[in-house]
Amino acid sequence: MIQFLLNQELRSEHALDPNLTVLNYLREHVGKSGTKEGCASGDCGACTVVVGELHRNDQGVEQIRYRSLNSCLTFVSSLHGKQLISVEDLKHQGQLHSVQQAMVECHGSQCGFCTPGFVMSLFALQKNSDAPDTQKAHEALAGNLCRCTGYRPILAAAEQACCNKPQDQFDSREAQTIAQLKAIAPTQTGELNSGDKRCLVPLTVVDLADLYDAYPQARLLAGGTDLALEVTQFHRTLPVMIYVGNIEEMKRIESFDDRLEIGAATALSDCYTALHHEYPDFGDLLHRFASLQIRNQGTLGGNIGNASPIGDSPPLLIALGAQIVLCKGQTRRTLALEDYFIDYRVTARQDSEFIEKIIVPKGHSLFRAYKVSKRLDDDISAVCAAFNLKLDNGVISEARVAFGGMAATPKRARHCETVLVGATWNAATVEKACAALAEDFTPLSDFRASKEYRLLSAQNLLRKYFIELQTPHIETRVTAYV
Predict the structure, then answer these.
(1) Is the pLDDT of residue 449 over 70?
(2) Which residues of 6-22 are buried (b: 16+ CB within 10 A; e: fewer)?
(3) How far apart are CA 335 and CA 430, in angstroms?
(4) 59 falls in which pLDDT band (50, 70, 90)?
(5) Please, what are the domains in the chain?
(6) Please, what is the angle between helix 98-105 and helix 151-162, to 10°?
(7) For residue 51, which of 201, 207, 170, 157 has the smallest C-alpha distance?
(8) What percent of the chain is predicted at pLDDT more than 90?
(9) pTM metric for this prediction
(10) Dihedral angle sign, alpha carbons of residues 105, 108, 110, 115
(11) pLDDT tens-digit readout, 369-420
(12) pLDDT at 269
């Protein structure tokens, strides 16, 4: 059985289909049809809902953290121990919520289909903001698309909603909701079981290892932003899933003198502060990783584990010399991330083995990262590049150059690195290294970019890296897009 709050109503579910998304649960099982399906792939934001969960802030005070999610990519099992809020829950005692009222007064709704998603993103923004902030408003709304193109009034609504925000019913009931969430906090492995399909929800790494050993055919579910597409887009059935999002050990970020250790189930939005502090380019790239809804769900371990050749984090992690800790039963092994990827969607992971954490070295001051995509926000890379050199008196003593989108896997540019190591860091060396990239990669052409464009972009990004290191005041870095 799993338990969660539907606004303030306790829901206990056991026999639901584990392949059921939160979107369809709301619309088909509880009659809340305000949440809309626009794309069923996490691109449009029409299905945005907000999930609240217990969280301790920096001062150690327990509070509810509200986050926007795409309900079309969220399986119901991931709600275990949390609170689900949909657009119907905002109106209270016959009065519109302040974010809804702002949309009305600023004329932010046109055809109306996307409006519930915008409202829920604005609600999460309001809950996480102390004052109007244009940058945060853009970030909060980047994952919501309006085909009527009414963004200016929606941004005005965001400013109004976050300015002198009034107390709402969620604020007044906060203590009660915290008590309810504590009462339903999971204490043992939960389960959804519809007879032919099941999803298990362990609470510890030990339990996960035991369950995965017992069900090696199971699919591991973290954020689900990739896995859920098999159900929503390809109409496949997932007979057995194991949800790892309730394992606190796998959601920790620990900082040591020489490294960061990031649990594989850590949401990308939670990785931002630590990675940005060590590597500003990594943090900046995370801001361009899909949308805020996706970053609130998707995990660093999942972005590695799905072995996509266009995943944004693997090239950066490879260039930094990151390692992963793989767990199987009681056995653990540490593997260089670059050795994890074997071929297209093929990895070195063994049966019943899972990524427990990622180890990111510190201290690489010349690390830079770049993403080229067709639009700035909420888009997949055509080319993602990461460069990490060590210079001794103008001579390159170490070089790690990695790319995504250039091969069947995220991959180091070995020929390019060979040209660089031992050479003087100058324009002539850079041109030789650019030529060597043609030996490292024979990229494919697809709807994102042609092979010629990809290769030229990769070469130009290396040139860009050289120029920026020579003149650090001109840094456009990860903002590059087609």
Answers:
(1) yes
(2) bbeeebebeebbbbbbb
(3) 31
(4) confident
(5) 2-184 (3.10.20.30), 190-243 (3.30.43.10), 248-361 (3.30.465.10), 366-480 (3.30.390.50)
(6) 140
(7) 170
(8) 93
(9) 0.95
(10) negative
(11) 999 999 888 899 999 999 999 999 999 999 999 999 999 999 999 999 999 9
(12) 97
The per-residue pLDDT for range 212-227, each reduced to its tens digit, is 999 999 999 999 999 9
Could you give the CA distance from residue 454 to residue 447 in angstroms, rounded to a whole number?
12
What are 104's two structure tokens? 């009305």
Distances (CA, A) of 169 to 91, 157, 158, 236, 293: 9, 20, 19, 40, 23
Dist CA 40 CA 213 (whole Å): 32
Place of tokens 């091969």: 407
Task: Take residue 307 and report the two structure tokens written for it.
Answer: 């072995």
- How far apart are the C-alpha atoms of 222 and 206, rounded to whole Å? 17
Q: Which DSSP string do the residues of 306-368 spell out, in sequence order?
A: T--TT-SHHHHHHHTT-EEEEEETTEEEEEEGGGTEEETTEESPPTT-EEEEEEEE---TT-E
Both structure tokens of 49: 């809902």
Separation between Cα atoms, residue 428 and residue 160, nearest integer Å: 54
Q: Which residues sit opposite 253 in a β-bridge?
A: 262
Q: Put residue 146 in one of left, alpha, beta given phi > 0 → left and psi -120 to 50 → alpha.
A: beta
- The span from the CA of 164 to the CA of 66, in Å, is 19
Residue 482 corresponds to which tokens in the numbers above?
């087609």
